[in-house]
Amino acid sequence: MRYRDERPRRIVWGGVLGSIAGALALILSVGGGPPPTSAQAEDVASRCNAEATQPAQISCFIDAAQAADDPGLCDAAEDAAVRFNCIALYAERSGNAAPCARIEVSDNETQALRDACISGVAAANRDPALCQAAILPVMRDACYMTLVVQFDADPALCAKIRNEKLLAACTEE
User: Fold this and answer.
1) What is the distance of C-alpha 49 from the center of its chain?
2) What is the pTM of this model?
């Protein structure tokens, strides 16, 4: 599926991705059930894309994706920022970084978005092993630092950080 050529804008970003979930106060995952039919997916796309604001669109799409247990519903968002946030929230809440692969990578900016998605899952699971999946070194370093600084992970993780400034900030904690 091709979208307009627009860069995803992160409309809500505090820490890695954790505050998006808090800021939007979205429902708990219902999960399960059969995948949506084509008509149901079209209904979700029509209804959610018609919402007046980006937060309302994100809420609509993530609610539908979680209820259907299908991150593919996020792909129907016309706005790239809505798509990114929906996929990232879905991945974070499911505790599974696999949906992050739905974020198409065409340059360093979109790679950073995918890496941020992975970092959000790592933070949600408090799992430093997931940080290694981040491709861009600065995003990988930020993932480790977030775990240490925000989630009181083992300070020994700071040794994995390659960026000198992030390493210094991490070891100061």
Assistant:
1) 19
2) 0.76
Domain coordinates in residue numbering, the chain: 18-127
AA letter at 33: G
Please state the length of the chain: 173
Rounded CA-CA distance 140/10 in Å is 19
- How big, in percent rounded to 5, are the helix, strand and coil portions of the chain? 65, 0, 35
What does the alpha-carbon distance between residue 162 and residue 32 come to, in Å, rounded to a whole number?
41
Number of Cβ within 10 Å of residue 162's Cβ equals 12
Collapsing DSSP to helix, strand or coil, 135 comes out as coil
Cα separation of the two ends of the chain: 45
Quote the tokens at residue 166.
């992030």
Confidence class of residue 22 from pLDDT cuts 50, 70 and 90?
very low
Q: Which pLDDT tens digit goes with each residue over 113-167?
A: 999 999 999 999 999 999 999 999 999 999 999 999 999 999 999 999 999 999 9
Token look-up 């065409």 returns: 106
Structure tokens at 49: 């894309």
